């Protein structure tokens, strides 16, 4: 049993290798695939969690070519692979990272937005 717990802990640590920025629902960027838009719940340099509800278009191991569109108008092309589908969300692993400067600016934007409200 102890070996199983160690494997699970190593898996969890690897999944969280990069800082993740979780978005409040009203400030979420979009994942644009063809004409479909999906809310992005969180992002990291090499991954994201996408709200898909019950969309059957997302299957584990599928390749994804899309655009991430931020609320301020910035857009980035991306490609990756679906690594998880669970409870109405898909986990994507990206082939090319989202620039760390983008993650930092998004973090600062959200901190400033929510700090001013309190």
Automatic annotation (TrEMBL):
Residues annotated as domain PilZ: 15-99
One family name in Pfam for this protein: PilZ
SUPFAM superfamilies to which the protein is assigned, alphabetical: PilZ domain-like
An MF annotation (GO) of this entry: cyclic-di-GMP binding
Listed name of the protein: PilZ domain-containing protein
